[in-house]
Each structure stands twice: as C-alpha cells, then as structure tokens.
Amino acid sequence: DYLAVAFDAGRLTFRNEEYDQYKAQRKPTPDELRPQFPLIKKVLAALRIPFLEVEGYEGDDVIAEVVRAAEKKGLEVLIVSGDRDLLQLVTEQTTALLTRKGISDLECFTPERVQEKYGIEPAQIADYKGLKGDQSDNIPGVPGIGAKTAAKLLKQFPSLEECLSNLDKLPAKTAAQLSKYEDQALMSKRLAKLADNVPVKVDFNELKREEPDYEALINIYQQLEFKSLLKNVQCEMPSHLTTPDEFKNYSLVKTITELTEIVEKIKAAGEFAFYFERQGIPPHQAPLSVLGVAWGDCCAAISFPEGAKEQGKFLITLDEIMADLDCVKMCHDAKAELIICKRHGLEIKGIKGDTMLAAHLLNSSLSNPDLDELSLKHLNQVVNFAQDEKGAAQRATVIKQLWPILIEALKGDDLEDLFYKLELPLSAVLAKMEFQGVKLDLARLEEMSIDLGKQLLTLTEDIYFLAGEGFNINSPKQLAHILFEKLKLPVIKKTKTGYSTNAEVLEKLAPLHPMPAKLLEYRQLAKLKSTYVDGLQSLVDTRTGKVHTTFNQTITATGRLSSTEPNLQNIPIRDELGRKIRQAFIPSEPGWVLMAADYSQIELRVMAHMSQDSRMLDDFRHGEDIHTRTAASIFGVAQEDVTPELRRKAKGVNFGIIYGITDYGLARDVHVSREEAGQYIENYFLHYPGVKRFIDQTIIDAREKGYVQTLFKRRRYLPDLLSSNRNVRAFGERTAVNTPIQGSAAAIIKLAMLGIHQELQEKGLMARLLLQVHDELIFELPAKELESLVPLVRSGMENVVELDVPLNVDIEAGHNWNDMQDVDC
C-alpha cells in the first residue's frame, strides 16, 4: 500500500562527529557509481516512488523513522536492504529481507530468525555491536570480545549497560576488558544504534503507491537502454495507452475477393508497409501464413489459405503490388522478407524503406533493433505484438509510421547515401546468398564424426587412467577436485565458484603433469566435433540438402557482416582438423568449382590511406611486404635478415595497432615481455609517425564529436570516451581508432559484392556468390567460367574504390574450400 526509498544524504553524519574514525576505512564512492545516483532518483520519480534523505543522517536512520511511524499506524512493514544494522527494527510487525550476494539472493529475517542466527533479540543488535564491534563500519567494540561472547553476555543480561553494571558476575578476563573499554563500548553502541527522532516528515498520503508516469518512465528507460524493463512497462501499461488509433481501421482478409479489394486500395495509395508473420521460423523455411499490410490510415492482415491452388491465386493477386517497382514498399528486415518471397515464388520490387537497417545505421549499438523498441523510442507507443493476424497488421502499421521519421533522421546524419547505395541493395544480394545455401559433403563429415568420437574415447580413457578414477571431464568442479585436491597441482587461479580450469590454467599446468595436455586436446576435439562436424550436419536443411547461414547486417557496430546458424565465418583453418572440415564444403553442382578471392591486408591499406603516413603509403605503392618492412624497422635489422619469427611478431604489431593493442596485449599475443612489447610499439610509431598522429587526432575528434565515422560516413557513437573509469575510457579510445579502419574495410568489400553481383547478372554468368568471410568472397561456378570470373572479380574488388594505395586480391580455386590453388587468368 505504501512505499518509500531512503538515501544517505552525504558521507558525514552525527556519528562522524562523535567518532572521526567511523567508516574511515571505506574507500570513496567509485567515480563510475557517483553519477548513477541522480539517474536512480529520476527512475524513482518516473515510477512515482517517493524517496527520503536527511542531511547528517544515514538512510538506515530514515528507514527507522518510517518503520516506527508505520508500526504506530498498525501497518505490517517489509524492509529490503543490504545493511544488517536494520535488523534492530525487526518485530512481529516488521520483517527484513537482506541481500546475501545480490538482489536475487535474499534472506528473510523475523524475530525468530534473528534469534536463531545471532543468538540475540533484534532489540539487542546495537548492544551486540557495542560489545563485538563492526568491522564494516569501523566500530571498535571491546577488544577480545567476539560474536559468541557478545551473544552469551546478552543472553545473561538484556543490554550492554546491564553487563557493565554486573561485572562482578562475569568471568575475570571478560570483566577486565569491559571495565577497561567501558567508554568505547558505550560509544560503539551509540554508533550502531539507529537514530531516534530523525527530522523527516512521514506523511503516509505521500507514500501511497501510485501508477507510474509511463511517458517519463519510457523516456528514461530508453535513454538508459533498459530493454527488458521497457518490455515490462509494455506489459504493465493500461490497455488504453497501448493501442494507437491507427490500429482501429483494421480488416482481416481471407478470400480472394477481399484480397483483390485491398490490392486495389494499395495501388491507389501508391505505397504500403508489409510484414510476413513467420513465428520465429527461419525465412528460408517459413510457410506462407499471414501478411500484414498498412497503407494510408488503414491496415489489414492477409491470411493465406491452405492448399497450393488457393495459395497460388493469392500470390498472383499480390504480384500486382509486390512486383510493381512504382509501388513504394517499406518493411522491417528486407533481407528476410525477400527470402520468404523467393521461397514462395513471389517477386518483390520497389522496397524503399527498411526500419531495421535504418535504425541500426542511426545507432550502431542497436543490434537487430525490434519494432517494439523502435515504436517506444520514436512513436511513444507501446505495442503488444501478438504472433497472429492482427499482430502482423500492427507491425506493418508501426513500420509505416516509423519510416518517415527514420528517413529524415538518416538525411540529418548524412546517412541517406549509405542506406540507399550500399546497405539496402546489399540486403538483396545477401538474401540470394542465404537462399542459395552451401553444399556439404555429409559423408566426409560423418566419417570425421566417427573418427573424432574414437579419438575422444581414447583420450577419456587416458585421462581416467592419469586421474586414477572416472569422473565427468566436462564438469569444472569435478575436474578441479582431480587436478588440485587429488593430484595436488598448484592452484593458478580462483573464481567465485572455486578453482579455474580454463585453457590458460591448463597450459600453465601442462609442464607439471601429463593430464592437462590431454585435457586441452580433449576440449579441442570435443569442440570441433560438437560445434562444427556434428553441428553443421544438424543444420542441413532436409529440403535443400544445404546449410543456409544468416548474414547479419545489423549486429556489429563497425558494419562488418557476421554469420550465424551456422557461423560460417569461423570455420577453423590453422590446424589439420580445421582444414579437413573445410574440405567438406563443396560446389552444389557437378562440374563446378569453388573460388575464393581474398583482399590482401585491406585494413592496413585503409590505415595507410586514412593516416597518410608517407612511409606506409610508399611501402604499399611499391609492393613491399609490409610485415617484413615493419620487422626490419622495429627490430633494427636489414630486410634480408628478417626471420619468419621476426615477421610473425611484426605482423602482430601491425594488426595490433589497428585494434589499439597495449603492451600487455601485444606481449601476450607474440609471447614476449611487456617491456619488449612496449619497445616494439614505440619503435613502430617512430617508423610510422603518421599513424601515431592519426590515432591521436582520431581520439581527440571523437571526444569532441561523440562519434567516429568511416570513409563512407557510417557513424559509431562512443560515450565510453567520457567515462570517469580509466579502463572504460581506454576501451573507448581503442574503439575510436579501430572502427573507422575496420568499418571502412567492411564497406569496401560490401561495395565489391554489389558490383560483382551486378556484373554477373549483366554478363549472364552462372557463377554465384556463396559466402563472405570478412575480407574474403567465396563463389561457386562452372569450371568453364573460371577464366571469365577471375578477371571480373579481381577488377571488381581491386577497383571498387579509389584509395591512395592499391588494393590487392589473391584468388584461388578448387573442388572444395580447403584444397585450392592460385589462379590468375
């Protein structure tokens, strides 16, 4: 019925006046925590939860005053806190919930529970602390008296004062300590006791629970990006606030006559938003269920009939608007919608708006932004989208409402060209790649699975033999018991739950005992088997016999594409087993081959262009091996004396600089001391001073603007640069340097994909783009087209943009993804 939150009003209280060492050992409030208190109060204000604070008193004292007033009013009280001083308020009317390890782990205290845990009554808590002290608050108590003695004394006498009045009845040693430290004990009790008569007005009319200010709450939650809390608000808001007027002009379409009528209305409007409801099914597998459409101030749900014949009639009618280039269309995730339509033979032309793509471009920290969060942010509407007919129509309506807002925002941030010339057309290319899928040699994978299973069985037996018993190898707890308690190996690292058994720990233990090396091998093989060999087989679409990955345009903040379900950008390549997995990726047609075109050091070339470092520009223009040149400079040797090991270390420096690597990170990566790593970085900047100037200026500009951008104007906002936390700020600086480089390289390969795809269509070639793996494009094609495709792809990738250094591409071809040879037609 009533609710209040209490705050400390400041660090100093009346207790500090009595004892200047009160809480003196505590560290100051962390810098990153201090600015959060005003935000907490803003959230409370939006929730209409009153908060109380009184200068010179702690929040606990304020709570005590509220509790006493509530008990006088005959109310039952619940206290939620992490401070055990509040246990002195526990009565038959008042219960305390105290945190143990966090808000999800609470301990409930009634008078009986206090007695059970501490052996005293709640009213004796201050006496208890007067005797034993309280280390957390720096309350001294009486030296030599601990928790057990204090509880025993208070069982014999009701208060500290009574104990002091009966020293002759106490053991000599205890009596001597109490006599010696009497004043300190009484002071300690006063420090621990919650204050009486705190000057705070407790008006229960003001403490009544009220409905939140939903508009203010949504606003603050959006600012703080509290996505799950926003969804909670969505469920709690009164229904009249959650249903925009536009959803009232709704119709459900179930017959061809009704559909024809809707199509004519959309034709007359000249534009519409649409949304296919697929209920979480991947688009390349989704059936035709419901299509939501919105035009003018109307919306409709088109419910597809069962049966191919009737469905075909619906598709023919829909084709009149879907394939009409002049009928403007808006959607949320054009790529997914294109795949669904392609699966069912429906052509789409004229998509001009994609709310998911646009929202991500406007704020790259938003990964796959949902329509509900965009509706909250831009329309101040909370919509409970059901996965049914009306839900699809509602989504289409929200898309239509959002698009004018988002396109204006794109124009305002100078992102319109990036949207229309790169990201939106790329979604169509990616849709074709996803729909096409990749063929796997399932027999080879099955053979690998059986072989890996045998190897894992042998390793398991070896590990059991070394352990002297069987146990669950995948259980960190059981493994830790074997390693550190039974085998007595040294503990390298502890976690909150026990001993760490991660790879780093096992590598350090490997020289001391044969088991850690066996465990590392077991984990490597187990991951290869479950994630790749068996995992890939389980994701093969039974209808097509291929795997259909999802290329994500709206996840990474730099603009790089990522791949999921399965992740085909992460197939191992550095070890023999990884290469065997790549051998299972094969062309989908007989007489065809795979071709891989890989940019050579594209991010370093972008760095040379953006930094305008004269030496780096010259190195690339003259075709120098950049890693050998860097090695010669930072290690002070002639180029001809650069060993493979030195070149490897220089490569680590070159790419590490792009990612803002520290001496610690470089030392770990190239296996040298921090001092050596620091010297490498210093020598690098002496050799490439333009790179150092670029890095420094980029950070300065980012701090002033609040964002960085790529060569193609893609932005990334960096609030971390203004953090008072040094580690967070350093991360922001590394991100500021890396994003323009990685983001520009990502845009270059995207542009190449667009250009090459268009040329393949114009020239009528059968070759098709299958995969994009960071700086590499994978094609499948008839072997006879190889001679035509190599120069087309080379030109399309090397000449896609004009930089101050050349872009070089390495091209290979073969009958699987691993066994490829260089080609130069």
Question: What labels would you give this structure?
Answer:
825 residues, alpha+beta, Nucleotidyltransferase, domain 5, Taq DNA Polymerase, Chain T, domain 4, 5 domains, 6-stranded mixed β-sheet, 5-stranded antiparallel β-sheet, 33 helices, 25 strands, globular
Architecture overview:
With 825 residues, the protein is an alpha+beta fold. The protein folds into five domains: 5-192, 5'-nuclease (Rossmann fold); 243-437, Ribonuclease H-like superfamily/Ribonuclease H (Nucleotidyltransferase, domain 5); 444-547, Taq DNA Polymerase, Chain T, domain 4, CATH 1.20.1060; 556-613 and 735-825, 2-Layer Sandwich (Alpha-Beta Plaits); 615-734, DNA polymerase, domain 1, CATH 1.10.150.20. The strands form eight sheets. A six-stranded mixed sheet has the order 6-9-8-7-10-11. The protein contains 33 helices and 25 strands.
- Measured distance between first and last alpha carbons: 80 Å
For the largest sheet, list the strands in their spatial order.
6-9-8-7-10-11
- The dominant shape is globular
For this structure, the CATH topology of the largest domain is Nucleotidyltransferase, domain 5
CATH architecture of the largest domain: 2-Layer Sandwich
Low-confidence stretches: 239-246
Task: Please tell me the total number of domains.
Answer: 5
Our Rg estimate from Cα atoms comes to 34 Å
Quote the beta fraction: 5-15%
Number of strands: 25
Q: Please identify which CATH superfamily of the largest domain we are dealing with.
A: Ribonuclease H-like superfamily/Ribonuclease H
Question: Percent of residues in helical segments?
Answer: 40-55%
Tell me about the biggest sheet?
Answer: 6 strands, mixed
Mean pLDDT figure = 92
Q: What would CATH call the class of the largest domain?
A: Alpha Beta
* Tally of helical segments: 33
Q: Could you say which structural class the secondary elements and strand pairing correspond to?
A: alpha+beta
